[in-house]
TrEMBL record:
Belongs to the cytidine and deoxycytidylate deaminase family. This is tRNA-specific adenosine deaminase. Residues 1-107 form the CMP/dCMP-type deaminase domain. Binds 1 zinc ion per subunit. It is an enzyme of class 3 (hydrolase). The gene is tadA. Its cofactor is Zn(2+). The keyword Zinc applies.
């Protein structure tokens, strides 16, 4: 999660919402990273998780990320939760809960939907306060403007 937090801080420096993600390989080592880049690139799909999953797939030369773990500072949205399911990651670890758009247990629970063919394990609220504080700081600065 500390690596994902570093990515989130870098996103904030470029003007994006501070969300960072890393993909851990089956051996537990970081194989890919990502940070929000929607403002930077103008791409509505440039969420930290999508960027990290794409990089991991490229590195492994396979869209199947079996054995991998997605670690992200904020609970994934529906798009990112769906991408994690489709990538077949074994687990999702996230920091702050997203009551407005979270799709891994708070608002929706895409990853545990029994109608889907893959359901990753979920580990929630790891370093949640630290992850949430970064978001609070970012949005607090924007309200002051």
């Amino acid at each position: 999660m500390r690596s994902a937090l570093a990515e989130a801080r870098a996103a904030m420096e470029s003007g994006d919402v501070p969300v960072g993600a890393v993909v851990l390989g089956p051996d537990g080592h970081v194989i890919a990273t990502g940070r929000n880049e929607r403002e930077l690139t103008g791409d509505p799909t440039a969420h930290a998780e999508v960027i990290a999953l794409r990089a991991a797939a490229e590195r492994l030369r396979s869209w199947r990320l079996t054995g991998c773990t997605l670690v992200v500072t904020l609970e994934p949205c529906t798009m990112c939760a769906g991408a994690a399911v489709l990538a077949r990651v074994d687990r999702i670890v996230y920091g702050a809960v997203d009551l407005k758009a979270g799709a891994v247990g708070s608002l929706w629970d895409v990853v545990r939907d029994r109608r889907l063919n893959h359901r990753p394990e979920v580990i929630a609220e790891i370093l949640a306060e630290e992850c949430g504080a970064l978001l609070t700081e970012f949005f607090g600065r924007r309200r002051v403007r």
